[in-house]
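Please check this protein record:
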Amino acid sequence: MILTIEELQKFLKDNKDIAYCKILKNLGSSPREKGAWMLISKQGKIFGTIGGGQLEYNLIQSVMRQNWKVDFSLEIETTLGPDIAQCCGGKVIISILKMNYMFSKHLFEKFKKDISKHTQVLIFGAGNVGTSLALQMYNLPFKIKLIDNRENFISKLNLPIEKKFSLIPEQEVRAANACSCYIITTHDHGLDFLLCYEILKRNDASYIGMIGSKTKRGTLKNWLRKKGINDISNVNIPIGKSLVDTYDKRPEIISAHIISEMLSIIEKKSDIEII
């Protein structure tokens, strides 16, 4: 299930009796981290996850067995080994709370606030790679924006993400949120270089990736040097090859490598939170 505000709103509306389940503590290896939560209805419907598998299945069964005629609040401690034959080997403590109206309202507002903190990802270029990237990133906790200066390209796309036709794409860089991620996949090398220049001038990018070859990287470096920028160490070009040097150039494969590279880089930055 895609964790969106709309889906949470629908879940809260469609289910009268709901339990809020949250990992309070984990020791050793476990499927999810401390603070991970999910909602389970009286009928066993779910929103979110605490890691799936036997742990989550047992939790759903436990919630369904509760006496829903009264309020309840309890904690369950599970060892992920002998208790449920799940070989993670760690231990988790999960709290279960029957939700009331005020708690539901508080949860909804907190969820909206958390969603607003999602890191912005600007994808420049609505060609094959850019479109594939937008589709693959839709289910990830980012605010995606696909930008192109060709109206006929951007207008025909039926994608569930924000799309923007802009004759001056570099203005989107200037207006971007702090610590955004930038992926440059346009059809125009000159535009690629200009976008990269604007991004580097901001000096706050969490990730910069540009499609192209090692030769293009050298040309970019020389072009930027004339503009007064000498360091391009944080510009990933060729994009998506810092983890695996693949020669498969299908758009879907390139996109998968780009996403892996971006996640690997931004998760190392302490000021970026993936919610």
About this structure: DSSP finds nine helices and eleven strands in the chain. The mean pLDDT is 91. The CA atoms of residues 38 and 48 lie 4 Å apart. The chain has two domains: 5-115, 118-266.
